[in-house]
Amino acid sequence: MRGLSIFSLICLFLHWIIKAGLILKIYSSWTNVDSWFKFWFSVEGIFSPFGAVLMRYPLSFFQVYSWGEQASEERVLNCSRAPYLKGAFPDTKLVKNKLLVLSNLSFKYSRAPLRLKRLHNYISKLERFSNVWKDYLQAEKDIQLIKNINLSLASNKFIAIVGKNGSGKSTIAKIIVHLLSNYEGQVLWAGKELKELSIKSFAQNISYIPQHSIIYHDISILDFIAIGFYPQEGMLSKKISEAEKKQKVLKVLKGLNLEKEAHKSLYSLSGGNKQKTIIARAIIQGAKIIVLDEPLNFLDIKSKILVLEYLKELQQNYGASIIMIHHDISEVKQYIDELIIIDSGYLVKHIKLENLKNDELKAI
Questions:
Q1: Rounded to the nearest 10 degrees, what angle do helices 271-284 and 301-318 cross at?
Q2: What is this structure's pTM?
Q3: What is the torsional sign of CA 175, 178, 184, 187?
Q4: What total of structural domains would you count in the chain?
C-alpha cells in the first residue's frame, strides 16, 4: 500500500513537472509549436486524466497566433477554460449579410500595470520617493479605446478599417479574433457569440496576421508556411500529405512572388519578404475569413500591390472574407468593397464603395 502511494506521488510529481515545462515552453518562445513540443504535449495527455481531451485544442491554436502581443498571455490562459465544451463555428453561407456584428462594443485599457511600473521606478530612487508618492496615489483613469461601436459586416467582402494612429482600429482587430476578451457589448461571428466558439473551430475558420509577429529565424520558408496547416489536422492523424502540403505552399509562394526563396531560411529574408511569408502562412491556413492588422508594413510599392491583388483574388475567386486594418485609404480604396473609418474609438463612417460614384470615390 505504501509502495502504491509513493508511486502515485512520483506520477503526480512528474505530471506537474511536465506541465511546468509546457508552460515554460509557451512563455519563453513563439507559438510555432515544433515536434518536440508536440511530443511532450502528448506525454502530458497520457499522465493527465483530461489531457487526452484537452491537448488537441490548444495545440491547434498556438501555431496560428503570434506571441508578440501582450494580450496573447490572456489568450493562453483562456485555453484552460474547457474549450472542448464550446461550440463550432457557424456556416457563414447562412448569414451572408451578417458575417460579423459588433453591438455596443466598448473596451477600456487599464493603466494599473503602468502605475506598478512607475511605483517600481519610484522605489528604486528613494531620494525621490517621498516627493512623488502623493502624485502616484492620484491614479490615472482607465483609457476608453473603443466607444459604443455598432457595426454589421457582410461575408465575401474586402473590408478596410482605417484611422490615424491610436484611433482604436487595431484594438478592434484584437477583439474580433479574441485576443482581448474583457470587452463590453457583443461580438457575433455568423450569429454566434465570439466567447462561445471553440478555439480549434475558430482557428479553422479565421486566420489572423498581427501587426508585429515574432518568428523563428532558423526555419525554412516552406516549413514556416506549412505551420498554417496545423488547425486542419487531427491530434495524431494528418489529413494532408506532405507532398500535397508542399504543392499548396509553392502555389501560394508563386502568387506572392516568393517561389525562388522557398528553401531559404527566414533569417536570410528582407523585412518585406518576411512580411509576405507571414501573409502566406495565414493564407495557407485555408480559412474563409482573414483578418490582417497593417499587413503592408515593411513592403515596397510593388509588393503592396502584389499582396492586395492576391487578397482580392482570394475574395473574388475563392469566396474569402478579408478584413484589413490600415492607415492609408489611398493605397487600398481601389481594392476594397467597404470602408470603415475609426477615430478616437468612435465609428465615424461605414461606406459601401459600390454605391459611390466615381467622383465621390476619388474624393475619399
A1: 10
A2: 0.68
A3: positive
A4: 2
Residue 23's identity, in one-letter code, is I
More confident residue, 311 or 68: 311
Question: Is the sign of the CA dihedral 78, 84, 85, 89 positive or negative?
Answer: positive
User: Do 335 and 200 belong to one domain?
Assistant: yes
Cell reading at 218: 532558423
Residue 339 domain boundaries = 143-363
**Distance (Å, whole) CA 292 – CA 282:** 9
Domain boundary among 12, 46, 62: 62
Residue type, 215: I
- What distance lies between CA 80 and its chain's CA centroid? 18
Confidence of residue 13 (pLDDT cuts 50, 70, 90): confident
The values of phi and psi at residue 230, to 5°, are -55, -45
Neighbour-count burial for 196-230, b at 16+ CB within 10 Å, e otherwise: ebbbbbbbbbbbbbbbebebeeebebbbbbbbbbb
Q: Can you name the residues that pair with 302 across neighbouring β-strands?
A: none
The residue whose grid cell reads 508542399 is 246
Across 252-280, b (16+ Cβ under 10 Å) vs e yields bbebbebeebeeeebeebeebbbbbbbbb
CATH number, position 250: 3.40.50.300
Rounded-to-integer distance, Cα 131 and Cα 270, Å: 49
